[in-house]
């Protein structure tokens, strides 16, 4: 598979289902958390990478910052622009080859976005390149040991083989992996694991049904095994068991993420 084909595949995956519903129903609180951690304010030049429908970009713009929301999937950007109540720039862009100048932004952030770029080293290099020396890098990513990280682990045996050189998305939620990616080019300021409380699902089965209908990566895995009813049933069981294991009462779950901020060295 060529790099162009891989990007088209990723774009189609995130356009499938209804990610805007996922963003609104489940993860909306994360954007403001990242904006606050990054210290974004009036007049700052801010880039949100993997912005989706603007979960972090929109609250950043509300502070008075000059915000560019970039994403590989134009369908998500269009939805975000239609729903936004503030002015910002919406730009289709590949996180591994950003169409921006060196040192163009004061803050470069990503809220559960850049972590899904398959080649982590390329994406990290691009985040650094477009951030000015002394500027802020701010990332919020699902952890490997948290619910979403474990969901990807549960789906892995049923998924198509990853492309050569691809790294699992939840690795961005491991501080040691970030240290390898950024090295001495970024000086960490704050590293903290937190939980997002999700109470949207009354039952484990409701969670599985929702993700099968709405979440692109889950849709792609089920599509890969659609011709094998036994494997579909096995994946249903694995995801249902996962939701039961993370249930903290009444169907609510805690989804762990890593909040990481750093200063761009240089």
What can be said about the biggest beta sheet?
Answer: 8 strands, mixed
Kindly identify the CATH topology: Rossmann fold
Query: Helix proportion of residues, in percent?
Result: 40-55%
> What general form does the structure show?
globular
Strand proportion: 15-25%
User: How many domains, as an integer?
Assistant: 1
Give me the oligomer status.
single chain
Helices and strands, with pairings:
Elements (H helix, E strand, L loop, with lengths): L2 H13 L3 H7 L4 H9 L6 E5 L7 H6 L3 E6 L2 H10 L5 E4 L12 E7 L8 H11 E12 L4 H9 L19 H8 L3 E13 L5 H11 L1 H9 L4 H18 E3 L2 E13 L2
Parallel strand pairs: 1-2, 1-4, 2-3, 4-5
Antiparallel strand pairs: 5-8, 6-8, 7-8
Structure report:
With 266 residues, the chain is an alpha/beta fold. It has one domain (3-199, 254-264): Rossmann fold (3-Layer(aba) Sandwich). Helices cover 42% and strands 24% of the residues. It has helices at residues 3-15, 19-25, 30-38, 57-62, 74-83, 120-130, 147-155, 175-182, 204-214, 216-224, 229-246, and strands at residues 45-49, 66-71, 89-92, 105-111, 131-142, 186-198, 247-249, 252-264. Strands 1, 2, 3, 4, 5, 6, 7 and 8 form an 8-stranded mixed β-sheet that branches. Helix 4 links the parallel strand 1 (45-49) and strand 2 (66-71). Helix 9 crosses helix 11 (229-246). The N and C termini lie far apart (36 Å). The mean pLDDT is 97. Keywords: Methyltransferase, Transferase. This is SAM-dependent methyltransferase. InterPro entries: Methyltransf_11, SAM-dependent_MTases_sf. Residues 47-138 form the Methyltransferase type domain.
């Amino acid at each position: 598979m060529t790099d162009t084909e891989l990007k088209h595949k990723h774009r189609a995956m995130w356009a499938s289902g209804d990610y805007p519903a996922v963003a609104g129903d489940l993860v909306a609180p994360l954007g403001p958390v990242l904006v606050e951690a990054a210290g974004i304010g009036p007049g700052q030049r801010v880039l949100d990478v993997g912005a989706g429908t603007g979960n972090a970009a929109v609250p950043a713009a509300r502070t008075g910052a000059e915000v560019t929301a970039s994403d590989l999937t134009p369908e998500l950007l269009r939805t975000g622009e239609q729903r936004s109540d503030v002015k910002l720039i919406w730009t289709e862009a590949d996180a591994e080859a950003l169409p921006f100048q060196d040192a163009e932004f004061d803050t470069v952030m990503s809220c559960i976005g850049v972590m899904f770029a398959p080649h982590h080293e390329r994406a990290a290099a691009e985040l650094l390149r477009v951030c000015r020396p002394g500027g802020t890098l701010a990332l919020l990513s699902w952890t490997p040991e948290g619910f979403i990280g474990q969901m990807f682990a549960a789906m892995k045996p049923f998924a198509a083989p990853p492309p050569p050189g691809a790294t699992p998305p939840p690795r961005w939620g491991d501080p040691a992996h970030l240290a390898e990616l950024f090295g001495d080019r970024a000086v960490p300021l704050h590293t903290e694991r937190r939980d997002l409380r999700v109470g949207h699902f009354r039952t484990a089965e409701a969670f599985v049904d929702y993700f099968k209908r709405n979440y692109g990566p889950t849709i792609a895995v089920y599509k890969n095994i659609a011709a094998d009813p036994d494997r579909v049933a096995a994946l249903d069981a694995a995801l249902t068991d996962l939701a039961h294991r993370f249930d903290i009462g009444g169907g609510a779950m805690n989804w762990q993420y890593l909040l990481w901020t750093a200063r761009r060295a240089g």
